[in-house]
UniProtKB/TrEMBL annotation:
Signal listed as a keyword: yes
Protein name: Extracellular solute-binding protein
Signal peptide: 1-28
Species lineage: Bacteria, Pseudomonadati, Pseudomonadota, Alphaproteobacteria, Acetobacterales
Keyword Signal belongs to the record: yes
Keywords from the named record: Signal
Subcellular location: Periplasm
Gene3D superfamilies linked: Periplasmic binding protein-like II (3.40.190.10)
Origin superkingdom: Bacteria
Similarity field: Belongs to the bacterial solute-binding protein 1 family.
Amino acid sequence: MRGMFARRAVLAATGAAALGAAGLGARAARAQAGGTVNFIGWSAAVDQVRAQISAFERATGIRVNYENFPWAQFRTALVTRLVGNAPIDVSWISDAWLPEFAEAGWLAPIDDIPELMKYNAEAAEYCTQSMRYRGRQYGLAYYGDHMSFMVNAELLQRAGIAAPPATWDEVVEASLRIKRQGIAEYPLLLSLAADTWLIEFVSALVFSHGGRFVDERGEAVMADPARGAVRAARFLREAIHTHRIVSPGAVETAEINGLRAFGSGAHAFAIVPTYRIRALNDPSQSQAAGRIRLALMPKGGPEGTNETCGWIRFYGMTPGAKNDRARRERAVRFIEFFGGRDTAGNYSMQKLLLTDLGLPFCTLPLNEDPEVQGFWTRWAGEGGGAVIAAQSARTRKKDVISPWFGEWVETANQAWQSVCLGRAEPEAAMRAAAAKWTELRRAFR
């Protein structure tokens, strides 16, 4: 089964990407002799990355050979190059790919490199855990974010609700009040389309209901009513079909469409990625601008917590770079400059990504930076930065990330959608997801 997962990754690569790999290999091989770091990212933050590269080159005298690809093609292009042994030193990696890439031998652990490991002391715990697999750490974070509970303060005021709900029961109660007053037909907005975002949305609900999908040993507990996944599924079903506070169309609402709907001002509550707060409070992008505020994720049931789901993207080093002394030294300096502190001692890249693009960070000291605080005050309101920091401290990585995650999540998405459509009881849906997890986990062994 291990071999099957690796072959699946390899076969995903296209012939066109393979030709691109050959071109990259030739260029990188020529550049390597001159002391160059070969870095691949996806087509995001390109201007910011180039600015940081210029700063890195000036500060270190090391050149950077930078290429990027659209997100939709990035994984395929990267796998092709890794399989072809292209001389890549550092690349951006999604936390969802880590187990598969580590098993395939495409990433090198960094936990024996003190210059990089020292940054764990200043990073959010969920970020560090998201870069660990089988006890080894594989990178430093590019950015880290989590699902946030957001409210439309104006709609709450119109309904006479003084403060954001603290529990999911209170969310139901407030939503019904808003609905009865004719302020909003579906006060709670959830984006539940069966796409790559769904696992983050439902994980936030499961964690806030005191639940887990798997236990510390990696065994499925999602079908256990005492673990919260069943309670979260029941909450969803009742919100849609009993209380009618969530639109039945939520099962077809993708994250970007949910963002637009919440920005229209038609909903009072929503679960939204934190980085979207800037767009929601930007008058040029949102009709509800200036009214959206953040609150801690509501607690669900007797075992409820304020926990939510987080995810990261990180800088990973290839074994080829690590095993060559000169390449390793350059790669370490690059990763530290981009994922840690620069040569002036500043978290310059993380701060730039926030202030330019609104992307949150993993580095805790930046919470005290006056410019960072000013950014959050501008876009999240007074005290918004403190809420984000408090929620980050209550954020957990997805506990289902594994070499078989891509196989399992298809079944899990179907299970959650069947609950939302009223076609399956929460218990039966979670049993189906648990059975698939157990099947894949046993096969992998």
